[in-house]
Amino acid sequence: MSGILLESDRRREALRTNLWFVPTVEVLAAVALFVGTYLLDRAVYRGAFEVPSWVIGGTPDSARQVLTAIAAAIMTVVGVVFSITIVALTLASTQFGPRMLRLFIRDRGTQITPQPGRVRAGHRGAGELRAAGAAGVREDPPGRARQPGGHDPAARRTRPDRQPHR
Q1: Contacts of 147 (CB under 8 A, 6+ apart)
Q2: What angle do CA 147, 157, 133 make, to 5 degrees?
């Protein structure tokens, strides 16, 4: 019986010190978030329900610019935090030994801290895959005419005869 407990303890400890488990769960959650928000966006676009006017403000290009600025800020902060952490761990490991590194990696806060960057990368990657897959798909909602270059970014790619002016 104690062998079974020891085996489960060993597995739990392996998951706690594994740096891939928490990031994998976070990226999978980001992809699920993308699927949910995409389906919600499609439902609103088809007219399944109305959203308040304060929810939609601006153009897709302005939203893209805001998200790009937020992503750049997050990546800058994550890069600085990562660099400082590596320096601190290098100095601490020379004084306290390798056990300190194991305890640091085991800490949930250490594994969750870079979450915003991973989640955003997973969400954006899923969005880019969807946009690439929908490049030739055009679906107009019933009773509504789509404006060229309007709401759906894929709509711009469906008109090869209209190239942007340079």
Answers
A1: none
A2: 115
Residues 74-96: tens digit of each pLDDT: 888 878 887 887 888 788 777 77
Q: CA 1, CA 44: separation in Å to the nearest integer? A: 56
For residue 161, how far is the Cα from the chain centroid?
34
Cα 143–41–159 angle (5° rounding)? 65
Q: Is there a contact between 126 and 35 (Cβ–Cβ < 8 Å)?
A: yes
What HEC string does the chain produce? CHHHHHHHHHHHHHHHCCCCHHHHHHHHHHHHHHHHHHHHHHHHHHCCCCCCCCCCCCCHHHHHHHHHHHHHHHHHHHHHHHHHHHHHHHHHHHHHCHHHHHHHHHCHHHHHCCHHHHHHHHHHHHHHHHHHHCCCCCCCCCCCCCCCCCCCHHHHHCCCCCCCCC
Share of the chain above pLDDT 90, in %: 1
Token pair 């897959």 is at which residue? 133
Taking only the tens place, the pLDDT of each residue in 123-162 is: 666 666 666 555 554 454 444 544 444 454 444 444 444 4
Is the distance from CB of 17 to CB of 106 less than 8 angstroms? yes
